[in-house]
Write a structure and sequence with these properties.
This protein has 158 residues and is of the alpha/beta class. It is 25% helix and 25% strand. It has a single domain, classed as Alpha-Beta Complex (YbaK protein), CATH 3.90.960.
């Protein structure tokens, strides 16, 4: 199994993790599909979203794969009045990653990172390893250390 930049960052920080491979379906890159394919509960699979705020610029939100981000809560957490998801065409030039393989670790620039509080209800979570077909399993607190992330409530209520 090939190491990704995200995995090398965790190695450098001496953070314990596990790489988990799964079969990619180019027609369905959703976290829900990934969880089913990898045999992982959806509440443990987290997706990496890149947003832009009107005051702070770009930032990253890590939210449960089965949930929607709440843009008002993301704005509040990131000290913005308004935020929006970046256009998909901007993802790779901005982060170095493609859709379905965007990791909060190892982006071209170190953007502020916000992890949804629900991650801390889990002993470990899965995030993208930076390529399609591979996830990193790690403790949420270790992800906070690796990304210098803030905890925030950023998902929509049911």
């Amino acid at each position: 199994m090939k190491k990704t930049n995200a995995a090398r960052i965790l190695d450098r920080l001496k953070i314990s993790y596990e790489l988990v491979e799964y079969e990619v379906d180019e027609a369905d890159l959703s976290a829900v599909h990934l969880a089913a394919t990898a045999g992982v509960p959806i509440e443990k699979v987290f997706k990496t979203l890149v947003l832009e705020g009107d005051k702070t610029g770009h930032f990253v939100c890590i939210v449960p794969g089965g949930d929607e981000i709440d843009l008002k809560k993301a704005a509040l957490a990131s000290s913005n009045k308004k935020v929006a998801m970046i256009p998909m065409k901007d993802l790779e030039p901005l982060t170095g990653y493609i859709r379905g393989g965007c990791s909060p670790l190892g982006m071209k620039k170190n953007f502020p990172v916000y992890i949804d509080n629900s991650a801390f209800d889990q002993p470990f979570i899965y995030i993208s390893a930076g390529v399609r077909g591979m996830q990193i399993k790690l403790a949420p607190d270790d992800l906070v250390l690796a990304c210098k992330a803030s905890k925030a409530t950023i998902t929509a209520e049911d």
